[in-house]
From TrEMBL:
Keywords: Glycosidase, Hydrolase, NAD. Its cofactor is NAD(+). Residues 13-133 form the Gfo/Idh/MocA-like oxidoreductase N-terminal domain. Residues 145-311 form the Glycosyl hydrolase 109 C-terminal domain. It comes from Paenibacillus ihbetae. Belongs to the Gfo/Idh/MocA family. Glycosyl hydrolase 109 subfamily. This is Glycosyl hydrolase. The keyword Zinc does not apply.
Length: 408
């Protein structure tokens, strides 16, 4: 996985902003990379800063500069790029500030609070030329990349429909959000829409060439009633717990249908407030076949028995993405089955080699916009709402990015 290094073998000096559970896990991966230096860290909580500093020094690296104000990190001369793993609603603010001072940005995922936020991201990039990448790790999953490989080879024929989801029982995390200083609860209390769309949308968008020959044009969303988190809190935290006496604004299941310019549809589901096993609900359907994540099955016309499913495992090996084939030889590492590491490497290598970001600011803006737009649609009785073209027409002729050997 060390095919580079650009700039004469130099390292990338990073500033790290946001050191909660997710941020710390990313830091642990980055500090092991020989071409990465952690120059500075920032978080609002002192205990997280101290723990993060120990992660760095325990690897025999110099202690990073530490502060509570992210502006100090992006203002440092020894910081070339920043990793943003703070709360959802702060990602864009920090990313824009970093781009404005010429620091390359890698931002964790989350939904946008407004369309204006998305436009501000695009304008900051276009005004500065500073690279910005969304760290959507699910685009780097083994199955997702094998499916991308299959689609590029025409195995599914012409794509017609894709599905994705964030299906994850998070009742305990949400209900105990105040005690555990987790920002997710504030979104559930005040917003009703797909607040976390990119895990399901990102892989589908890459399969359908969104922003690179295709784009999303409109969406319609619908939400169920909200019962799951409050019910869980009553049973596990007691009737007097604040969450047990509070209704969440967020519906327990939010469904969003998206129309694409080239005629395909994408179905997204947000489902985190009810008992369920984890799933990203993937489905890829074309004129020659269909794959479904739940059950791990596939049917390909002319190869599969008539009207029967087959296990996807055999095809996964046959159509292994070259990046994953190399990765498994080198040794899979890191969280979420190894995709976190690949996603971070894509950013590091793209910056060092001065190549286009594989998940760029236009992807970031359009994927995050689904949250604000789904809220609008639900408020309007599930009316269809237009999805802005954040590329301003460039989607019609932009080619797929191929940074650091990773072809999207």
């Amino acid at each position: 996985m060390n095919r580079m290094i650009g700039r004469g073998g130099q390292s990338l000096r990073l500033g790290f902003i946001g050191l909660g559970k997710r941020g710390k896990s990313l830091l642990e991966l980055l500090v092991e990379m020989p071409d990465v230096e952690i120059a500075a860290i920032s978080d609002l909580y002192e205990d997280r800063l101290e723990e993060a500093a120990r992660v760095v020094t325990d690897m025999g690296r110099p202690a990073p500069a530490s502060c509570s104000d992210y502006r100090e990190v992006i203002g440092r001369e020894d910081v070339e790029a920043v990793i943003i793993a703070s709360s959802w609603t702060s990602h864009s603010e920090i990313a824009i500030a970093a781009m404005q001072v010429g620091k390359a940005v890698a931002s964790e995922v989350g939904g946008a609070a407004s369309l204006e936020e998305c436009w501000q991201l695009v304008r900051a990039y276009e005004a500065t030329g500073t690279p910005c990448m969304l760290l959507e790790n699910c685009c780097y999953g083994r199955e997702e990349m094998a499916l991308l490989h299959m689609v590029r080879q025409g195995v599914f024929g012409e794509l017609i429909h894709c599905q994705g989801a964030y299906g994850h029982d998070l009742r305990d995390e949400v209900a105990k959000g105040m005690e555990n200083r987790h920002y997710r609860i504030h979104n559930y209390l005040h917003r009703n829409g797909d607040v976390y769309p990119t895990h399901g949308l990102g892989p589908a968008a890459k399969l359908l060439n969104i922003n690179r020959g295709n784009r999303m044009t409109k969406l319609s969303s619908m939400a169920t009633k909200s019962r799951g988190v409050r019910d869980w809190a009553r049973r596990h935290l007691g009737e007097d717990h604040p969450v047990a006496r509070t209704d969440m604004a967020l519906g327990d299941v939010v469904t969003t249908m998206i129309q694409c310019a080239n005629g395909e549809t994408i179905l997204l589901t947000h489902d985190t407030s009810l008992p369920r096993p984890y799933s990203r609900g993937g489905r890829v359907q074309g004129t020659r076949g269909i794959w479904m994540e739940d059950g791990g099955v596939i049917h390909l016309e002319g190869r599969s028995p008539l009207h029967e499913w087959e296990p996807f495992a055999h095809y996964l090996q046959e159509y292994e993405h070259p990046l994953w084939a190399e990765y498994m030889q080198d040794g899979v590492r890191g969280g979420h089955g190894g995709m976190d590491y690949l996603c971070l490497r894509a950013f590091v290598e793209s910056v060092l080699q001065e190549r286009e970001m594989p998940i760029d600011v236009y992807d970031m803006a359009s994927w995050m916009a689904v949250t604000a737009l789904s809220e609008q649609s639900i408020e309007l009785g599930s009316a269809a709402v237009a999805i802005p073209d954040f590329t301003n027409g460039k989607w019609m002729y932009r080619e797929a990015a191929e940074p650091a050997g990773i072809s999207f």
